[in-house]
C-alpha cells in the first residue's frame, strides 16, 4: 500500500520535473512578455506614490518598457523557434508581430503624450493605470500572436479585451465614452462566450486544443462536417470580432467615437493585427490541399466574411459624417483586405500580410494623430468642420493627404504596395486553384479601392477645395510636426524600397 | 549610361523642389523657376527629337533608344521566385512625338498660367509634379513605373481643377478623379495578372546561373531560356517575374500554366481570359482617351478647369490614353486586338460622330471644344484599330497634332473668358470688329482643327482615313463603312466650327447687355501672342512637312503593326478552339 503510494508520488514527481524542465526550457522565449509584465507591475506600484515627479515619469517608464522589448525582439535571434509547452510558439511570425505590437504600444503612448485630454487630467487620476493597461494590452497581443492552442488563444484574447474595455472608458466623464465602453463590454463578452463555446466543440471533436497539429485536423476530417463548420463559425465569430470584420463589426464605430484618440489608433492596429495572426495560424493548415478541400465550407465562410467586410466597410464609410466613424469603417475595410490575403492558399502570403500590417500601423497612427490634433486644437468634430482648413495648416494638411492616399492605396505610397502584394497573392492562388471565389474577391477588392477613394478624399476635399473666410495660419507644435513626419516617412520609403522591409521579414521568418 | 531621359522626367521635379524652398510671397520667382524648368525640359525634348534616329528601328521589341535600366525593387515571394521592378525608360517612334508635345505644351501652359494669383506656390508645385508624371508616363517601359506615373497624374490634376477651377470645380474634380481611378484600377488588375505570368529571360538566365552578372545576354541565350520556359524545364524558384513591357510583348515569355498564357484555356464569360484582360485595360485607357461612352467626365473637367489646365488636359493628358493603347494594350494582347478591331474601330467612329453632334449642340464655346476633342480622339481609335501602317501613323500624328491644336483652341477660349467672364456663344456677335487679331487666331485654330489642308490635322485625318479604307484588304480589319462614316465626322466638325465662327465673330458687334458692365473687349496682349503664334506656326509646319514626324515614327510603327499582326494571327489561331466551342 505504502509502496504503491510511493510509486505514485515518484511518477508524479518525475512528471512534475519533466514539466518544470520544459517550462524552464521554454521560459527564455517568454522574455519579452515577462519584461512587459514586470514593467506593468512597476507602473502599478509607482502609481501608488503621490509625488508629482513620479506621476510625470509614468509614461516614460512605460515607453522604456516597450522600447526595451522592441530592442530585445529586434536583436535577439535566440528567441525564435522555441515552444513553451504546447501553448505558445515563438517563431519568426511571433517575433515580427511582437515588434509591431511594441511599436503599436510606443506609438499609442506618443499620441497620448500629445493628447491634452489625457495629459491634463487632474493629477493622479488613473494616469498610471492608463499606461499600465497599454502595457498589459501589448502583453496580451504578444500572447495572441504566439498562441498555438485554442485555450491559450482565448486567454490571450481576454487579456486584450479586458484591457481594451477599461481603456475605452479612460475619459469616463464623457457620456460618449461610457456608451462606447458599455457597448464594447456587451459585444465583447458575448463574442468571447460564443468563441469559447465553439472551442469546446473542437475539443470534443478532436480531444486536442492544439490546432497547429496535423492530427487535430485529421481527426476533424472524421467528424461530422456540419459540426465542424458550426464550431468553426463560432470560433471565427470571436476572431472576426477582434479584427472588427463584418458581421461582427458593430461595436467599431461606437467605440471609435467614444474612446480617446490614441486608444482608437491602438484598436485600429494592435488587436486587428494580432487577430489576423491568430487566424493566419489557424488557417495555415489549409495550405495542405487535402485539408483545404475537406474544409471548403470554412473557406467559403471566410471568403464571404471577407467580401461582406469589404463591402460593408467601404460602402458604409461613404455615409459617415465624422472623421472618427469614417476611420472606423475604413478599419473594417482594411480587415477585409487582410482577410482576403489570408485566403490566398497556395501562395506564400505571410510576408505580404506582415508587410500590409506594418504599413497599416504607420498610416493609421499618422491619420489618428492628425485627427487628434484636429479635434483637440481646432475643435473639428465633423467632416464639414475641416472646411477651408487646408491653407491654414498646409503642412499637416499635406501629411493628412499622404496618410489618406496611402489608406486608399494609391501610388506613390506604401498602402499601394501592400495592396499590390495582397492582390498578387490572391491572383497566384487563383492561378493555382482556379477557385472562382478568389477571382471575385480580387475584382471586388480592387474595385472597392475606387469606392475607398470616394470617402477618403472627403477630408482633403474639405481641407483644400472648400473655401473659408480666414486664411490665418494655425500653430502646430513641433513635436506634432515631427511625429507626423515620422509616421509619413515610412510610407514613402516602403513604396520606393519595399524590398528593404520584405527582405527583413523574410529573414525573420526563415 | 545616358541620362537624357531621366533628366527629361525629373527636371520639373527638381524645379518643384526649388519652388518648394522659395518663400510664398516671391510669386515672380516661383513663376520664373517654373518657366525655367519647363523651358529646360523643352530644350532637352527638342534636342532628343532632333537627335532621335528614326531609321534605326529594327522592330517593336528592341530598338528603344537612350534606354536606362536600373534595378529598383526586387524581392522573392517564397515559392513564387523573384519579382523584379525596374527603373526602365526608353524612347521610340511612338513616344518621341509625345515627348516633344509635352515639352511644348508644358511651356505654353506656364505662360498661360502667368495670371494665376491665388496660392501661386501651390499651383506651380502641382503643375511641375504633373509635368514630371506625364513625361514619365511617355518614357516608362516598365509597367509598374508607367502605372506609378499614370496614377500620380490624377492627384495634381484633382487639385488643379478643384482649387483653381470654376464654380462647379469640386464636382468636376471629383468626377475626373473617380472616373480615371476606376480606369486605372482596371489596368491594375491586368498588370497584376501580367507580371505574375511573364518572366524576364535575361534575369532568369542570371538566376539560373547561365549568365554572369552585368553581362548582356545574347539573342541565342534568350531564345534558349524562352524555349526552356515553354517546355517547363525552369524551376519556379528560378523564374524572375517582371513588369517590363517589352518582355510582356513576347508570347514566349509567358509562363506555361499562367492564366494569361495563350494555352491556358481559361475562360470567363465564354471569352478567353486574355480577351477579358484586353477589354479591361482597353476600358482603362478608353476612359483616359476618352471615348464614348466613358467620356462624360471630360466636358465637366474642361469647363471647370482654369484655361492652362484645360490646355494641359486636352493637349497631353488625353494622349496618355491613346499612347497606352499603342504601347501596352495592343502589343501585349495582339490576338484580342485583332479580334476586337471592329469593336474598337466602332467605338472610334461612334466617338467621332457622337462627339461632333454634341459639339454642334453646345452653347458654351469651351464645351464645344471639349466635345470636339472627343470627336478627334475617335480618329486615334479608328486609325489604331485598322492596324495598318497608315492608320497607326495617323493615330500618332493625330495625337500630336491634336495636342498642338487643342492647346490653341483652349487658349482662345481663355482669351474671351478673361475679358468677358463668359463664353456662351450666343452672348457674343461680331467680335471680329473689335478683336481682329484674336479672330484671326480663332480662324486658324478652327480651320486647323477641322482638317484644312496645310495644317497638321489634315495630315492626321488623311492618314487615318487612308488606313481605315485600306484595312479590309491589307490587314483584314474593320469593315469599310467605318471609314465612310468617319468622313461624315469631318463634315460635322466643319459645321460646328463654321457655325460657331459665324455666330460669334461675324456680323455686327454685339454682346449680351449684362456682360457689358464688366467686359473689357480688347485685342490680344503680348503674352497671348507669345502662346498662340508658336502653336499656329507648329500646326502649319507639321501640316506642310509631315515627314518631320513621320520619319521618326515610321519604323517603330512598322515594327508595331508587324508584331501585332504576326503575333495576333498566331495566337488567334490557337484561341480559335475556345472561341468556336
Automatic annotation (TrEMBL), chain A:
Superkingdom to which the source organism belongs: Bacteria
Q: How does it sit in the membrane?
A: Multi-pass membrane protein
Keyword hit for Flavoprotein: no
Q: Name one Pfam family in it.
A: Proton_antipo_M
Task performed by this protein: NDH-1 shuttles electrons from NADH, via FMN and iron-sulfur (Fe-S) centers, to quinones in the respiratory chain. The immediate electron acceptor for the enzyme in this species is believed to be a menaquinone. Couples the redox reaction to proton translocation (for every two electrons transferred, four hydrogen ions are translocated across the cytoplasmic membrane), and thus conserves the redox energy in a proton gradient.
Subunit structure as annotated in this protein's UniProt entry: NDH-1 is composed of 14 different subunits. Subunits NuoA, H, J, K, L, M, N constitute the membrane sector of the complex.
Q: What is this protein called?
A: NADH-quinone oxidoreductase subunit N
UniProtKB/TrEMBL annotation, chain B:
What molecular functions are annotated in GO for this chain? NADH dehydrogenase (ubiquinone) activity; NADH dehydrogenase activity; ubiquinone binding
Name all NADH:quinone oxidoreductase/Mrp antiporter transmembrane domain ranges.
140-197, 272-477
**UniProt cross-references to Pfam families, sorted A to Z:** Proton_antipo_M
Mind listing the UniProt keywords for this protein, alphabetically? Answer: Membrane, Transmembrane, Transmembrane helix
Query: Which parts pass through the membrane?
Result: 6-23, 30-50, 87-111, 123-141, 147-164, 176-198, 271-289, 309-330, 336-361, 368-388, 394-417, 438-460, 480-499, 529-550
Membrane topology category: Multi-pass membrane protein
- Keyword Membrane annotated: yes
For this record, an example GO cellular component is: endomembrane system
Q: What is its main location?
A: membrane
Q: Tell where it localizes.
A: Endomembrane system; Membrane
Per the UniProt entry, what are the Gene Ontology biological process annotations, in alphabetical order? ATP synthesis coupled electron transport; electron transport coupled proton transport
The entry assigns this protein to a family as follows: Belongs to the complex I subunit 4 family.
Q: Which PANTHER family match?
A: NADH-UBIQUINONE OXIDOREDUCTASE CHAIN 4
Question: This protein is called what?
Answer: NADH dehydrogenase subunit M
Organism this protein belongs to? Pontibacter ramchanderi
